[in-house]
């Protein structure tokens, strides 16, 4: 924006500032105006001059302006769309019966001279599975095609409202500094305020909200840290309505238009998504399906229960849960997918030059969706992995597995997916499947020498007790070299694992999966509902 405003929050009127942001974005931001022109939501809420009502968009041409609302749900009773009230709501929606967050969002929409708004609980029939699946399948278009997404960032429920705090600390300002004959403008800001206002907000604890933010071309965050404007080109707030000279935060939104480094982008999206909560456990994959569809439309590739086949899936399979919880009682994804468990998930390092050695390779995959939609709910999947084999072990404690068949005891550190597995009997045989390994970066030691520590990553499996040689994932393992030469323990972990792998697996270790030294490969096959079958290649 071209403005000479360098004072603290010149304009406190959120609607007026938002009009300026929208106008500037419309006129000057090419990326933001590449909004998706596609399928409209099945219904919109009309909030213009006439009676507020629910309207069907059947037969409408695309390109109609509407806002969307991103908000927290809660268990409180509030007005929703059901089969029994769908007809009355198409005649008139009683505004006085709406919760505060809905009323505020409608008020802002009207003041911006926009006639329509999309609110999930009022535009999707809540007791109609088919309607829910239809609308969920087009979330990429619903939010991607919205003119503006309103995010009630600090409201803890639907009654909390869309509000900004006037009693807060200034997050940024600009000053003019005279240096000799020159006058310079300096931006003073709190670099962490964006993350606190957006990623650490109450709204960010709702998993669905991530795709609502990432898919929308423009979002207005409203909360206890003021009004924050975010589009694909600019981040601004009511302290600096002209925009920050440098972008803040993770940049995840802006990079949805540039997915050259999909592995890193997807890993960050999964980390943020799995930190958040879901009211309904079965929504684990549907709540991310809009982002997955967007990625697929940009890059193509095969989507497998939250992982991408064409983006070095062997590395993605090495995900780990940072805070293990109880295993979900309802099946929703195979055990090799992070969507099968709860808790924050982190991915293995995937930067160029890191972990480039492969000890196994995915050779085939089959998809079994619940309906004709590979991005949503599943009934099962099959994944075939070509590998040299596995090491056998038993649990010592929740953090270690001892390798069997060795004269000298070797403990491999493991990270279990759920707390259920922490009580496994030491008599249960486990299987350690190495997947990737190699350098993990460069370290400068205290003596000035450069050191490139190595690691090996893989999965912890156990037999299902069903058909012969059937397995499922229960965790992951990592054996790495220590970066401090005076400490030998971790250094022994990496080399100790490699040595035992070579001895127990016919002295054949795959490097790059380009050739086997003598022994034929084995196929590790994960079948429907997360089981795995270990058998010879046909």
TrEMBL record:
PANTHER family: DOMAIN PROTEIN, PUTATIVE-RELATED, HETEROKARYON INCOMPATIBILITY DOMAIN-CONTAINING PROTEIN. This is Heterokaryon incompatibility domain-containing protein. Residues 66-212 form the Heterokaryon incompatibility domain. The lineage of its organism: Eukaryota, Fungi, Dikarya, Ascomycota, Pezizomycotina. Pfam families: HET (PF06985). It comes from the Eukaryota.
